[in-house]
Design goal:
Length: about 220
């Protein structure tokens, strides 16, 4: 189901404006607590890919290994939620992961004979759909004789675990003049489109409500 079809089924959402990075929707007849829950989930509750494990094969740059790994982890990665599982929900149940829950990216700068900046376009992914959102993100500057060679593993995660898995840069909720009506604005990091974030956010809030209801029913029993 695409976003337009979704809106036809869910009359409480009205798109005010949207582009590739940002989207604003009006929430009608939605209580403040549910609207705020959706805002929070859109910010850090929708899973996206980020580099989580880095094997440093060679690093003669000015950045220490942990600094290089940190820099790589903060590069936003394009995400396909339809094809990959979160590690905790993957059938492999393996610490090392499998092709359904992790993607390997490699970077080998080669020996530098001039001073240059290594950019994100030098990260090569084993899956073309899972790669940095931009080719121009700076990683490290190398001078003559320096080199970096790494193997990275990206996995799905949520911003509640670490900010590098935030699906949105901002997620705000503003009131309108009407009761039970507010405007949700989501700006994507680029890993997902803003409409994908909102759609996934609605599903996530709904699932959490069902789980909470089941817990209450078990307590009553």
């Amino acid at each position: 189901m695409d976003f337009k079809d979704f809106l036809q089924d869910l009359s409480s959402l009205e798109v005010i404006n949207k582009d590739n990075q940002k989207m604003s929707v009006k929430l009608k007849d939605v209580s403040l607590q549910y609207a705020n829950a959706l805002r929070r989930v859109c910010l850090n509750g929708v899973p996206v890919f980020a580099i989580d494990t880095v094997d440093i094969i060679e690093n003669s740059s000015v950045l220490p290994d942990e600094g290089l790994a940190h820099r790589l982890g903060l590069i936003p990665i394009k995400t396909d939620l339809s094809r990959f599982n979160e590690p905790s929900k993957c059938d492999c149940q393996s610490e090392s992961g499998c092709s359904n829950c992790r993607v390997m990216l490699v970077l080998d700068s080669g020996d530098s004979d001039v001073t240059r900046t290594v950019l994100s376009n030098e990260l090569s992914s084993e899956d073309d759909s899972i790669k940095p959102i931009s080719d121009k993100i700076s990683i490290v500057q190398l001078t003559q004789g320096q080199r970096i060679k790494v193997e990275c593993y990206a996995r799905l995660g949520r911003g509640t675990e670490h900010a590098k898995w935030n699906s949105a840069n901002i997620s705000t909720l503003t009131d309108t003049d009407k009761k039970d009506e507010s405007v949700l604005t989501v700006e994507s990091t680029g890993a997902l489109s803003p409409e994908q974030i909102i759609l996934a956010g609605v599903d996530e809030v709904s699932n959490r409500l069902v789980e909470f209801k089941d817990m209450i029913n078990q307590i009553k029993e």
